Amino acid sequence: MSETIAQEAISTEVEDLKPKKLTNKAPQGITTFTVCRQNDETGISGDGVVIEGCLFATGHTIIHWLTPSPRGSIAFFDNFDDFIKIHVSSHPTNGTIITYDDGRQTIYTATGEVKKNEKTEESRSA
Prior knowledge:
This protein has about 130 residues and is an alpha+beta fold. Helix content is about 15%, strand content about 30%. It contains three helices and seven strands; from the N terminus they run H-E-E-E-E-H-E-E-E-H. Strands 4-3-2-1-5-6-7 form a seven-stranded antiparallel β-sheet, covered by helices on one side.
């Protein structure tokens, strides 16, 4: 007895392959971000964009240090706050700016002030 099992074609369209907000397992999906340091108080990582990272719906955070070139290194954190405590808050004079994939920014000033820059209607339509 031969059975024919219908197979769905796998789409290779770019829009179908882009990361999407997931179902009930991870309703927030993945958020990507960059970390820009306006100064480098330790003299190790440099200034400018020094980290690219992703924050998972579970809170787990992965960062990729872009220095030393060409490879950098990877670090894993159980939650985003641990990453902030270790690499941002502990270096207040760096003037760190975290920019998220949706355009939001969190700015950590040299005085320890934290400013949130939510995206505006104008930036959403751009």
